């Protein structure tokens, strides 16, 4: 049964080997059922190069935190996403930056005046690019591990394809591939990748150790 399911995923993914040329998705973010933010993510892709921009705006009392903007740019070569540069700027905070030199195999990060360079870890991604990298997973592997840089440090995440589901969201109903991260038994993350939109994530659910549930759900999609 699992082999048959994986065959279905592989066949449908073959027609979506590349991201859409341009797409913008608006997400509503809630914490334990209460709205806390609106996120807009914009992807532009052409001839192997991508640009991802994410803007974050708080709602209610979270509006006092100001706004945030993250940008990732890089390339996709032979179905492998390679970020080139990333920055994360937020109200009242120093901007975090990361540069990926794939030729020299080095990673440079900068935050609060400190700038350091280290060897580029395997399958390196940034805090924004790994969402796009996940869209290349269905049909190519059952699981994948990333070393994720945010300009301040590195974290290691492993994601596994769980299966196919039909999901209903405020923006519509879609066929999706569900991917999960379960590196900590007390914390989990689940993503639903839309087959109709090049396997871009349309929902992200994170359950933290203290039981808090953060749900990021697509409310608007435009090309």
Number of strands: 15
- The first-to-last residue Cα distance is 35 Å
Rg value: 17 Å
Uncertain runs with pLDDT below 50, 5 residues or more? 1-16
Q: Strand portion, in percent?
A: over 45%
Secondary structure tally, helices: 2
* Largest sheet, strands/sense/barrel: 15 strands, mixed
What's the helix and strand layout?
Blueprint: H1 2-14, E1 22-31, E2 34-46, E3 49-58, E4 67-77, E5 80-90, E6 96-101, E7 106-111, E8 114-119, E9 124-126, H2 129-134, E10 143-149, E11 154-169, E12 172-184, E13 187-194, E14 200-207, E15 213-222
Parallel strand pairs: 9-10
Antiparallel strand pairs: 1-2, 1-15, 2-3, 3-4, 4-5, 5-6, 6-7, 7-8, 10-11, 11-12, 12-13, 13-14, 14-15
Briefly characterize the structure.
The protein is mainly beta and 223 residues long. It is 9% helix and 62% strand. It has a 15-stranded mixed beta sheet.
């Amino acid at each position: 049964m699992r082999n048959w399911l994986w065959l279905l995923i592989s066949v449908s993914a073959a027609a979506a080997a590349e991201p859409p040329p341009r797409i913008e998705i608006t997400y509503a973010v809630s914490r334990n059922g209460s709205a806390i933010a609106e996120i807009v993510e914009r992807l532009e892709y052409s001839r192997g190069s991508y640009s991802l921009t994410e803007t974050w705006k708080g709602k209610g009392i979270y509006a006092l935190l100001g706004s945030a903007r993250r940008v990732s740019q890089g390339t996709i070569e032979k179905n492998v996403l390679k970020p080139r540069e990333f920055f994360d700027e937020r109200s009242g905070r120093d901007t975090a930056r990361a540069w990926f030199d794939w030729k020299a195999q080095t990673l440079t990060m900068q935050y609060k005046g400190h700038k350091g360079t280290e060897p580029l870890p395997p399958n390196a991604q940034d805090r924004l690019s790994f969402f796009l990298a996940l869209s290349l997973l269905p049909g190519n592997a059952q699981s994948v591990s990333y070393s994720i840089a945010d300009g301040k440090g590195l974290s290691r995440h492993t994601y596994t394809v769980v299966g196919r589901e039909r999901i209903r969201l405020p923006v519509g109903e879609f066929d999706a591939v569900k991917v999960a991260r379960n590196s900590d038994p007390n914390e989990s993350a689940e993503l639903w990748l839309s087959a109709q939109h090049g396997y871009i994530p349309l929902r992200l659910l994170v359950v933290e150790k203290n039981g808090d549930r953060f749900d990021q759900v697509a409310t608007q999609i435009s090309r």
